[in-house]
Amino acid sequence: MNWTNKLKDMTEREMKLLPYGFLKKYGSIVHMMRRIEQDAKVRENKSLPYYQQIKNNDKVLRNDEQQALQQFKELHVQPDNVTLKDLIKDNEDYFRRQPRIDPSKLSYNFE
Predict the structure, then answer these.
(1) Is the Cα torsion angle 94, 95, 99, 103 positive or negative in sign?
(2) Contact of 4 with 29, CB cutoff 8 Å
(3) What are the pLDDT digits (tens) for 73-98?
(4) How far is CA 90 from CA 35, 83, 93, 94, 99, in A?
């Protein structure tokens, strides 16, 4: 039996029984093996077919929530019905002079 396999299969209780010098020497190997296992799990999860659908979700949505979100997206993707006539302003208001204010008629006394 290889000693790295023993470290890999060791429980927390068995690890606490090991001497400090051993943990100091081989602790980094144990952490590296656990990190490799976690990376393998992440790679396995990313290979699932629905990963791309849920990777940006804050939470997994129920079917009715997914339908509501889909309807909301479809509503906002549709372009507005804007015609050229809506974009052209009336010529009557183009150069109209703005009303002038007579400062003598204004009162700044709010008492």
Answers:
(1) positive
(2) yes
(3) 888 887 778 888 877 776 666 666 76
(4) 69, 15, 6, 7, 19
